[in-house]
Design the sequence.
């Protein structure tokens, strides 16, 4: 059974059809990429799947349950997590505290316990901090555990965001342009990290403009054209699709 099923999904903004009658399925444990030029509807799809936008029509099923129209925190509890194209870092917090924020739905949120700093709350916070350190090691930014977030380089902050998303212990992780603004070495590190995440059992949905990265790591690729599906298949199938080559990949497809 597919982990995520999108059926006839549409979203309009006034007279603009950002996503039109879009359907696709994503199996568990794979890297699934969504590609297309700016304005193709990629981030809108992410926002619909994660509850930031409500669909005009259509249905989203996650892990066998209809989650159409659910708000982000409800989806997070069910195992859906994401990062954003633009950094969403709390720069007045430490790196580890940023990661701990991602685990807040799993922590004791009772007001009295927090006010009086009950032993059970202190123990859970200590466990959460240890988990944050482990996740920072996992994504390759362990040396910044005790650093202030505003002292970290841009490439490390991109991976810190991924660690924070993983702190929610998701089944499905959506990454919106994780390689944007990175140099070639940092891009290779993100490539390896995404494969590492998928190997751990987390399904990854990727929006990314770096076609070499997409072709290298994706089990399946969805190509959007003005909010509609232009093509879907393996990297080899998409690479060989004349419409895709002409519209989106051009010479990159031949070089990849």
Sequence:
């Amino acid at each position: 059974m597919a982990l995520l099923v999108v059926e006839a999904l549409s979203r309009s903004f006034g007279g603009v059809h950002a996503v039109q009658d879009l359907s696709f399925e994503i199996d568990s444990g794979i890297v699934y990429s969504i590609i297309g030029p700016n304005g193709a509807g990629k981030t809108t799809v992410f926002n619909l799947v994660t509850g930031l936008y409500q669909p005009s029509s259509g249905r989203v099923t996650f892990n066998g349950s209809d989650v159409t129209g659910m708000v982000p925190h409800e989806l997070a509890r069910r195992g859906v997590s994401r990062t954003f194209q633009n950094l969403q870092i709390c720069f007045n917090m430490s790196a580890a505290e940023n990661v701990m924020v991602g685990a807040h739905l799993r922590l004791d949120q009772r007001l009295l316990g927090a006010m009086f700093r009950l032993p059970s709350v202190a123990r859970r916070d200590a466990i959460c901090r240890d988990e944050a350190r482990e996740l920072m090691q996992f994504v390759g930014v362990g040396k910044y555990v005790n650093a202030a977030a505003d002292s970290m380089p841009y490439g490390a902050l991109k991976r810190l965001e991924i660690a924070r998303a993983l702190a929610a212990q998701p089944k499905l992780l959506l990454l919106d342009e994780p390689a944007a603004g990175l140099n070639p070495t940092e891009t290779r590190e993100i490539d390896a990290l995404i494969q590492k995440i998928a190997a751990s059992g987390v399904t990854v949905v990727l929006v990314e403009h770096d076609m070499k990265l997409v072709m290298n790591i994706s089990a399946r690729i969805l190509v959007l054209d003005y909010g509609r599906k232009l093509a879907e298949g393996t990297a080899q199938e998409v690479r060989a699709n004349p419409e895709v080559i002409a519209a989106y990949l051009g010479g990159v497809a031949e070089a990849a």
Q: What stands out?
A: The radius of gyration is 19 Å. The domain at 1-79+171-256 is CATH 3.40.50.300 (Rossmann fold).
